[in-house]
């Protein structure tokens, strides 16, 4: 140890790590995530023009109300560290992704609120393509208090599974900008557990070296300026076996095969991940305007134009991808994403199961993304004024009470409020208790979508092809050929070849299942009419979004949004006077003892109608599009076999047929603002071979083939 108590072993220099690569994926295992991140961020200013992805895993938890997090905000010397500390972090399960500096720096914080360990967190991560190149263990993991938890072979094997063959491990010191070591951890609000460098047990450094040897890592010992090499062929074979084991567990769920130049893949595609089942080219008799095909075309095509497409474009743009967006309208965000004010808040469930965890992760990511776009100067009308939710009949109240009382929700996710508190928060007499989401509020989805597209355009070559309806797509010679018609006010032109692309994403909202390849997606359209009403009477005072049977937003430019109707399989999108009245009545029925609902006046007939696509399990759909015809054909083949009872095993062990390089992104129901940005980020990461913010469990739950696989894996017919 030196005079300041900083362990000289730990001086890892980021610039050194970067000298051969432009994208560095780095893992930090630490007991004090905040101090570890701050140490890294103090160095990050050096990495111009390079991208870095930092995953932080810790058994201890942080949230943005953590005093140390606030300490960084006040004391940071670098702009980057300040922008990191401005992110909202909550004590929730799973990965919280922060995308800083236009995606140049990605930080994933993994934590769990239950008894799961760092090993459990690692086990859910999958890195089929780009792998971790470096792991840092902060010196507090080597203290006598913590070492039993972190210095475990199981953890090192998981890290090894996720790592490139030549990945290294080294120790990270954590210091503040002033040079004072602050390895302090606020364990609870009133106890402080201090872990100092002096607590690093020398024997634990030897143990760490041994673990590295046992799992095939090179250990960087900065004291002797030495990288410890050893012949690790056996350990590398073991890593490979672990990877295969994980892939086998989810074999039925096709993982995207990124299109990336071999040089960008870090010694990572040693094993085949999918049965490269090239699909047959369907017979097609379209009137195609033949174009000369450029076999090197590497643009990604998106069919859409709403919030999902815009955030996918932004996430791909941050990764330097070229994009073509085909949109049937004459501008961005003319479909479901066209509303003036949409509520943003998480969907919680009493068991805080995967759905609830997904929505918390997604909601926080949306907040980060919106904040980032605002900081970049995009005009997005919004007010993070909080959302108050309450029941609207005995059944819904019972359900909400169950959610409120079943868990100890982090206070920046949701807090229980009584009637008086609710009145104070909303500034109107709701006279009911319920749930309050302090980071929620409303945002204009139309402007948000526009902003995401503009930001994407500032980062990459993004071609917007408006007034163009995509009618059909075909996979020919490893390219997706997009056919469609240009729409003009006079007529619909003949279908022609519009372009060909290495990867194709269908994010066309209500039309997502209108192509032959996507027709079987089990999503149901629900019409919604949201009313725009003038602010008057007590409505003027409303200071939070209210959610009951529908939602009501605080005024913006003298108008509120109230609604929306929810009608299955809509016949048309015409304005409905009945739905307009129902929007008012639903609010009045939700708050029978209040006066302010009488101020809701829908007579101006100002409204907007859209369609949401809803899945039965409320998860969006994201990932490689299943080839349902082939799934069905294989199922019929299976049925003929004598060992038909073993069919579930067959489906467990074989990759379900799917279309190469064809992805879907949709089914966001009534929560697109809270969920689309994270799901789009996840898809962009998967398509480019990068680490997804969604673990394998959630990727499987969002997979477009889940509806069929659930049956097949149980041995049932589809
Ligand atoms: C009335 C209403 C109220 C809502 N309120 C909220 C709320 O408060 N909070 C919230 O989070 N969410 C809310 N939602 C849901 C949210 O708006 C949606 O989840 C989200 O907008 C879906 O985005 P998207 O990009 O998937 O679809 P869309 O925004 O519908 O975008 C699809 C795009 O695809 C284009 N397209 C379709 N077919 C083709 C084709 N063949 N060729 C070319 N282009 C095509 C369309 O032009 C459109 O631009 C509401 C929805 C409605 C309808």
TrEMBL record:
Pfam families: DAO. InterPro entries: FAD-dep_OxRdtase, FAD/NAD-bd_sf, SAM-dependent_MTases_sf, tRNA_S-uridine_synth_MnmC_C. It is an enzyme of class 2 (transferase). Signal peptide: none annotated. Residues 300-685 form the FAD dependent oxidoreductase domain. Its EC number is 2.1.1.61. This is FAD-dependent 5-carboxymethylaminomethyl-2-thiouridine(34) oxidoreductase MnmC.
């Amino acid at each position: 140890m030196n005079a300041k108590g900083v362990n000289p072993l730990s001086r890892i220099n980021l610039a050194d790590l970067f000298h051969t690569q432009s994208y560095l994926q780095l893992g930090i295992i630490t007991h004090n995530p905040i101090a570890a991140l701050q140490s890294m961020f103090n160095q990050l200013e050096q990495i111009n023009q390079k991208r870095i992805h930092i995953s932080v895993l810790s058994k201890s938890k942080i949230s943005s109300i953590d005093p140390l997090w606030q300490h960084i905000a006040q004391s940071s010397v670098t702009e980057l560290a300040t922008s990191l500390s401005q992110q909202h972090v909550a004590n929730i399960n799973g990965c919280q992704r922060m995308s800083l500096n236009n995606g140049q720096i990605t930080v994933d914080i993994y934590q769990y609120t239950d008894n799961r360990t760092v090993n459990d967190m690692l086990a859910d991560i999958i890195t089929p393509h780009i792998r971790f190149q470096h792991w840092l263990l902060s010196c507090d993991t080597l203290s006598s208090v913590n070492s039993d938890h972190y210095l475990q072979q199981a953890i090192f094997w998981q890290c090894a599974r996720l790592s490139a063959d030549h990945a290294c491990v080294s120790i990270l010191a954590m210091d503040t900008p002033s040079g004072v070591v602050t390895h302090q951890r606020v364990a609870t609000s009133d106890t402080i557990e201090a872990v100092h460098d002096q607590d690093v047990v020398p024997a634990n450094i030897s143990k760490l070296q041994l673990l590295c040897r046992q799992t095939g890592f090179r250990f960087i010992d900065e004291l002797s300026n030495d990288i410890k090499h050893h012949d690790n062929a056996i350990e590398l074979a073991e890593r490979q076996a672990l990877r295969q084991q994980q892939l086998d567990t989810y074999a039925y769920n096709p993982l995207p095969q990124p299109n990336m130049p071999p040089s960008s893949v870090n010694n990572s595609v040693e094993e085949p991940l999918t049965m490269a089942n090239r699909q047959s080219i369907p017979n097609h008799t379209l009137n195609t305007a033949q174009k000369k095909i450029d076999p090197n075309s590497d643009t990604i095509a998106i069919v859409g134009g709403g919030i999902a497409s815009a955030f996918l474009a932004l996430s791909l743009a941050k990764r330097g991808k070229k994009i073509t967006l085909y949109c049937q309208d004459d501008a961005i965000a003319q479909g479901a994403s066209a509303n003036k004010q949409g509520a943003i808040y998480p969907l919680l469930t009493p068991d805080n199961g995967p759905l609830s965890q997904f929505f918390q992760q997604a909601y926080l990511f949306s907040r980060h993304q919106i904040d980032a776009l605002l900081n970049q100067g995009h005009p997005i009308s919004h007010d993070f004024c909080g959302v108050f939710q309450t029941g609207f009949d005995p059944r819904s109240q019972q359900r909400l009470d169950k959610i409120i009382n079943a868990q100890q929700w982090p206070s920046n996710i949701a807090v229980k409020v009584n009637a008086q508190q609710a009145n104070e928060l909303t500034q109107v007499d709701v006279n009911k208790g319920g749930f309050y989401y302090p980071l929620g509020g409303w945002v204009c989805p139309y402007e948000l979508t526009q902003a995401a597209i503009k930001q994407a355009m500032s980062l990459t070559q993004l071609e917007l092809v408006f007034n163009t309806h995509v009618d059909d797509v075909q996979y020919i010679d490893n390219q997706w050929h997009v056919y469609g018609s240009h729409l003009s006010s006079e007529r619909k032109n003949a279908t022609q070849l519009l372009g060909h692309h290495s990867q194709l994403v269908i994010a066309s909202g209500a039309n997502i299942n209108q192509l032959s390849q996507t027709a079987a997606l089990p999503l149901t359209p629900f019409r919604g009419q949201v009313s725009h009403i003038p602010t008057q009477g007590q409505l003027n005072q409303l200071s939070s979004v209210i959610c009951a049977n529908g939602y009501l937003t605080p005024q913006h430019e003298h108008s509120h949004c109230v609604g929306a109707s929810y009608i299955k399989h809509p016949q048309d999108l015409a304005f409905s006077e009945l739905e307009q009245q129902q929007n008012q009545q639903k609010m009045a029925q939700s708050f029978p003892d209040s006066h302010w609902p009488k101020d809701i006046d829908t007579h101006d007939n100002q409204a907007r109608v859209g369609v949401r696509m809803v899945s039965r399990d409320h998860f969006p759909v994201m990932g490689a599009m299943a080839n349902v015809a082939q799934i069905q054909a294989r199922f019929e083949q299976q049925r003929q076999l004598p060992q038909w009872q073993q069919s579930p095993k067959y489906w467990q062990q074989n990759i379900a047929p799917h279309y190469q390089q064809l992805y879907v992104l949709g089914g966001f129901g009534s929560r697109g603002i809270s969920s689309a940005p994270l799901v789009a980020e996840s898809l962009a990461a998967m398509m480019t071979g990068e680490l997804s913010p969604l673990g394998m469990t959630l990727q499987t739950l969002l997979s477009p083939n889940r509806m069929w696989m659930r049956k097949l894996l149980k041995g049932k017919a589809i």
